[in-house]
Known about the structure:
By secondary structure, this protein is mainly β. Helices cover about 15% and strands about 35% of the residues. It has two domains: about 65-330; about 370-395 and about 415-545, no CATH class. Helix 1 (about 350-360) packs across helix 6 (about 520-545) and helix 4 packs across helix 5. The longest helix has 27 residues, at about 520-545.
Amino acid sequence: MHNLFLKSKTEKQKKRHRAGPGGETVRVPARRTAVSLILAVSFLLTISPAGVQARQGDSGYEGGISSGETPSMTNLSSSSKYEFDYQEPFFLTGVPVILKGKLTLTKKLKEDTKTKSQVLTSTYVYSLKNGTQDTLTRSLTFVTTITPKANGQKVESTQLTKATENAKVGGAVYIISSIADYELTKSILNDMKPAVNYFQGEIISRKKYRMGTTGSDYVTVNSTASYTGYDQYWSSAEAQLINQEIVQQRAGKAPVTVGNIKMEVSTTTKKELKYYENLPEQSSIQGGYVQTQANENVLKYTAVLSELDKKKLPTTKLVPYAGDLKLESFPSSTRLVSPNLNQIRGHASEENIALLFGLEAFENAEAFDPQEYISRAEFVDAFLKVAPEVPLDPAFKAKTTPSRTTKNTVVTSPFADVSVNRGDFESISNALKRGVISGNGKSKFRPDDLITVSEAVAMMVNTLGLNSLAPNPVPVTGFKDNDKIPSYARAPMYVAEKIGLISGDAKGYIYPNDRITKAKYADMMKAYIDYMGKDIRKEYMEKLISY
Length: 547
């Protein structure tokens, strides 16, 4: 839990907004590009879908793991085409055999302008081996129709349209020659929130291998899998829980079950932030944060397989097996900017403030006052740097084409009290487009009003799309001043406490209507980053995978 909102016993005078002698807020005049009009309604944040499709499926659906995409990876062509390291256990010989090699993934997207649906064609090509004798080549083409729904969610329906596989493992040959021997359906629901895309679905498949290059002996693999995860800027997680049954059928004989397998496949991406001091004193750079990104992919399996004789016929002996595979990408790193912040040396929030400057959420280090209150517009402007949009799958990135028109586009403000000439107009407009805030052209945003704890927490939780975690009809938090929480913030405050974004002070108070200093804002954003990068990923891995 993070002590984000501990009540300050003393407050410095603020530069633009300072504490008056009686504790009231005194506004110091500042130049503005628009007049701030006070709105008597609460700061309600209505979420709308972000309208993006995040990356999924880098490990395929065959019960294997890939190294996944990294920021430094080179695209193999102008389309979305990448080559990954890949590993997969092969069970048809009666003994698990680990095959390793390359997976090449290609994606092409087409859009139907009338129905607004999208059709994604994904081709997976595998080239695997174990030593010099065991080899597997496989080529699969999936066609996915992505249909938007009225509530902002998207449904993916996937069919396998082409399939070939040739495996030479353990002295035996296993062949899938066409789509007639491999049936698969996959359906996934995507729920896009301003900062996170959640997905969940199911996969059902049947693979019928011919044993040998001729003849009528077959081995069939029946699979069912649940598929769930999320994508966002600070981390991603994808989990597959797979159950397989292997059935052997010899010519003229009844089918015999020769194996049962359970697999847990996890594919995760994480960004981490670490501060490095600059040891030489005679340098203008005192130190700064480095952001690293790496993929960690793990597969665990348990299997009970019939021991096969020399003719590959099953015996009555059942043998249990267990094992795991792991692939990690080499981390990529990005150095964040590092301004001189001598004036906050020793401040309790010094590291978090430095982080916000590193992310360029804070600017103008020389004039920075950690005890200055933050306005609603400033909060939104900085928050978009901390909570970027969900990274797009390269296949879904819009293709730009030269415009033949020279007509000027008229820019209008979505809020009656937000001028298009404001320096932060673009941030406020982008926040509205993403669904971080709401407006209809006539409503007011109150950009220069000081933001409160309740308003800030409402924004943070709504970007996660987790308000449904709060009980109905009236959520009750554990804070002693729960009754002072505005009605619109009851659910977000409950959720924030539940997932560890906030906690009260030593006496159990949260002070929901207090204004927020920039120092407290930095603490809030660090907690938000920790949740997005660590806590949510841990939630998925610990509850879905024996991680």
